[in-house]
């Protein structure tokens, strides 16, 4: 009978350990994912911005020498990420594929213009900076027109700012929730040992002596849950890098954000479990014997 009871208690204890580790793992994984997003938000937002082209159309008076000089100028510009020259013949071929017919035969000439698709670095894809860049380009000889989607630029910038603010708010709320959830799980775990705590106290053990093994044990559980959360984040980062290579999230190259978040998660897991265990054991240490039931 005693053996059956001991097995039941052992299974119950293992189940409590698993519950605590699972709580720490799930909460810190989500918190770590949000932290990675915040740290990489600039890169992610720049990726969206840098995919908005500014098209520069040249008049037919422009010569090959003009294009060569302008190409050299683009290569030296600090605000240009990439650019592509599109000749009027290439533009005509693209139009034929899109329309499904040869419009040149109907018109008798090519009305399209030589152009550059210019992609500006993300930091410069804001209203004022783009206006100054546009003004600078318009001073270039033979540029007839500059076109880019100003509404899309404003929409991307406003949405990125809104999303970042919401992520910060959610991360703050989740931090509080994580502390409460982990604290609740640890309190339930320590609750099962309340009689052991009181027995040790009755035979003369000090509060510090009683608390120490519980704190060390909780710290180990927190460390296990944190390490599992870090492993999950590494796997998530590799997955996202494979799905969205343009974001440049490869942990083998851009590893510092993951290192910072990983250390933060491990530290948070240990600190939260330590504080929660301290107050949970303190509560049962202050209870009278008849209040344990």
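^ Assign residues to that structure.
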């Amino acid at each position: 009978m005693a053996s059956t009871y001991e097995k039941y208690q052992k299974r119950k204890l293992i189940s409590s350990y698993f519950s605590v580790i699972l709580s720490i793992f799930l909460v810190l994984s989500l918190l770590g994912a949000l932290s990675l997003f915040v740290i990489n938000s600039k890169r992610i937002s720049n990726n969206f911005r840098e995919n908005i082209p500014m098209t520069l159309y040249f008049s037919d008076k422009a010569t090959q020498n003009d294009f060569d000089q302008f190409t050299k100028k683009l290569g030296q510009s600090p605000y240009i990420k990439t650019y592509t020259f599109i000749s009027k013949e290439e533009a005509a071929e693209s139009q034929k594929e899109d329309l499904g017919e040869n419009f040149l035969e109907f018109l008798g000439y090519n009305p399209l213009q030589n152009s550059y698709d210019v992609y500006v670095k993300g930091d410069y894809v804001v209203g004022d900076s783009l206006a100054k860049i546009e003004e600078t380009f318009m001073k270039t000889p033979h540029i007839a027109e500059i076109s880019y989607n100003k509404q899309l630029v404003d929409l991307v910038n406003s949405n990125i700012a809104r999303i970042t603010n919401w992520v910060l708010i959610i991360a703050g709320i989740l931090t509080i929730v994580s502390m409460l959830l982990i604290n609740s799980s640890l309190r339930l775990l320590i609750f099962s040992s309340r009689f052991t705590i009181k027995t040790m106290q009755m035979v003369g053990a000090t509060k510090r002596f009683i608390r120490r093994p519980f704190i060390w044990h909780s710290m180990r559980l927190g460390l296990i849950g944190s390490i599992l959360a870090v492993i999950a984040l590494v796997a998530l980062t590799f997955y996202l890098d494979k799905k969205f290579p343009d974001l440049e999230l490869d942990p083998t190259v851009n590893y510092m954000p993951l290192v910072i978040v990983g250390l933060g998660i491990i530290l948070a897991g240990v600190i939260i479990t330590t504080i929660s265990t301290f107050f949970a054991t303190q509560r049962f240490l202050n209870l009278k014997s008849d209040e344990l039931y």
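The two ends are 23 Å apart (CA to CA).
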